[in-house]
Design brief:
Strand content: 15-25%
Largest sheet: 5 strands, parallel
Number of strands: 5
Shape: globular
Distance between the termini: 21 Å
Helix content: 10-25%
CATH architecture: 3-Layer(aba) Sandwich
Number of domains: 1
Structural class: alpha/beta
Oligomer: single chain
Length: 153
């Protein structure tokens, strides 16, 4: 018998889902087979990505079952998610955040729909994945799972 709060009104919220994406991903250095800690920084997006990241942290996606945790400080993170194109005022805080990341680390850049400075122009290293536009939380999770070489089951 299943515990009743695990069911939604019309569907099970904890049902098994296969997450997939066509985004090319580079190998993340290090062994993150048990857990991956993520820090998110808003560098200048259209605010849609902030809502998607908060939705990704909800119990519907249950990132903890994959060993994915969101941290409050970049010094504890293995992966940095940059939301949007950096604005001129966010270049210095972004570079300071990258400098605080422990090695080995990776950067996952979600471009969003805003325009601005490219991370490639800033010569940021260790970019492991880049997504264009404003993806759904399921696609963001699929890319993260692809980064750590796991399948979404």
């Amino acid at each position: 018998m299943k515990w009743w709060p695990l069911y939604g009104i019309k569907k099970k919220l904890t049902e098994q889902v296969k997450y997939s994406t066509a985004c090319p991903v580079k190998k993340l250095e290090g062994n993150f087979s048990r857990s991956l800690h993520i820090y998110t920084i808003d560098a200048g997006n259209c605010n849609v990505l902030n809502f998607d990241m908060h939705a990704l942290k909800s119990s519907q996606y249950n990132t903890h079952k994959f060993g994915i945790y969101f941290t409050a400080a970049p010094r504890h993170a293995d992966l940095l998610i940059v939301l949007g194109h950096p604005t001129h005022k966010m270049i210095e805080p972004l570079m300071e955040t990258v400098n605080q990341m422990p090695k080995p680390y990776g950067i996952f850049w979600i471009k969003g729909c805003s325009e601005g400075i490219s991370l490639y122009d800033l010569k940021v290293k260790n970019i492991v994945a880049v997504l264009d536009g404003c993806p759904e939380p399921a696609e963001i999770l699929a890319v993260i799972l692809k980064i750590i070489k796991r399948t979404g089951s």
